[in-house]
Amino acid sequence: MTATLTDVARHAGVSIATASRAFGEPDRLANATLERVLTAAADLGYSNPNGSTAEKTFGVIVPDIASPVYATLLKGVHAQAWQGRHRPVLFDTDEDLHREHEQLELARKLNGMLLCSPRLPDDEIRALVGDTPVVVVNRIIDGLPYVVMDTESGPRQAVEHLAALGHRHIAYAAGPRHSWADLRRGDAVAAACAQLDIEFTRLGHQAASIQGGLAAAATIVASGATAVIAYNDLVALGIDAGVTSMGKRCPEDISIIGTDDIEMASIRQPGLTTVRLAINRCGSLAVEVLLQAMAGASPRSVASLDSQLIVRDSTAPPHRD
């Protein structure tokens, strides 16, 4: 006998109205309730009658919803999803690998999912995804479609800019330890420094936040570097505050470059030189690719979205004694 929505509601211990919302308005339910309903549907083999319509419900898993980068990405996701009246359900891993694992298990019960900068190992992600249509955002995992923002051209532009100003020792302030983009940005900075015969220092991993930049400030000053390229703008802003508290000035004593070009980067003083990424476009394009996957087509991967160095006042020639 084919399972009904009533069967699902009874199995999950919820009302029929709540069970219906899990498939029509999932964002109105607490994650625990949504999980119970979706698990019950999977156990009973319930087929959502709306699953064959154009409207789809998909999970969006991000490392940190407090980050302005992911807020911008989500704006792109929601704008594109709204055009087709598709329903994204948001999951925040809070940079926790165990939570990311659990949320992948839950999200795979939806029509599809976007994995935004996931931190788990490739094999574990592939196993958790299974047959669920998926698009990985800002990371490349063999066998899965992806949309990736530039991790090479932008950092190279940043190094070339600093070299033209006369800097001969550049540091890279790393972000989260399990970040795919962080590793590649750091490698791109290192490669560009080697090509231009510039001394390079890669600093230890920090949180992708202002606090992470504050924590990195002392090691930057101790390294003797006259310029630093940060994993993101928040880290760059934290570095600026940290070196200032140590009696150093930006850009007179140390030049600082961020990544992303969040809104705050242009209004601070001095304005933050940064690598602008196509974050909003990345979100909307990821939804387009996911819709292809959910329709049963072979989705195309997008290898890179262009970046551009935006020069402001946080970079200048190094101070000469």
Describe this structure in words.
Helices cover 45% and strands 18% of the residues. It contains 12 helices and 12 strands. Strand 6 (169-173), helix 8 (180-195) and strand 7 form a beta-alpha-beta unit. Helix 1 (5-12) crosses helix 3, helix 7 packs parallel to helix 8 (180-195) and helix 9 crosses helix 10.
Tell me the layout of helices and strands:
Layout: H1 5-12, H2 16-24, H3 31-44, E1 57-62, H4 68-83, E2 87-92, H5 97-107, E3 112-116, H6 122-129, E4 134-137, E5 146-149, H7 153-165, E6 169-173, H8 180-195, E7 199-202, H9 210-223, E8 227-230, H10 233-245, E9 255-260, H11 263-267, E10 273-277, H12 279-294, E11 302-305, E12 307-310
Parallel strand pairs: 1-2, 1-3, 3-4, 4-5, 5-11, 6-7, 6-8, 8-9, 9-10
Antiparallel strand pairs: 10-12
Helix pairs in contact: 1-2, 1-3, 4-12, 7-8, 9-10
Based on the model shown, name its key terms:
321 residues, alpha/beta, six-stranded parallel sheet, six-stranded mixed sheet, 12 helices, 12 strands, 45% helix
Tell me the number of helical segments per DSSP (H or I, 4 or more residues long).
12
Placed side by side, the strands forming the largest sheet appear as: 2-1-3-4-5-11
| Nearest-integer average pLDDT | 91
Question: How many β-strands, per DSSP?
Answer: 12
Ranges with pLDDT <50 over ≥5 residues? none
General form: elongated
- Going by helix content, strand content and strand pairing, the class is alpha/beta
Portion in beta strands? 15-25%
| End-to-end C-alpha gap | 84 Å
Q: Which H/E pattern describes the elements?
A: HHHEHEHEHEEHEHEHEHEHEHEE
Q: Main sheet? A: 6 strands, parallel
Tell me roughly what share of residues is in helical segments.
40-55%
Q: Over the alpha carbons, how many angstroms does the gyration radius reach?
A: 22 Å
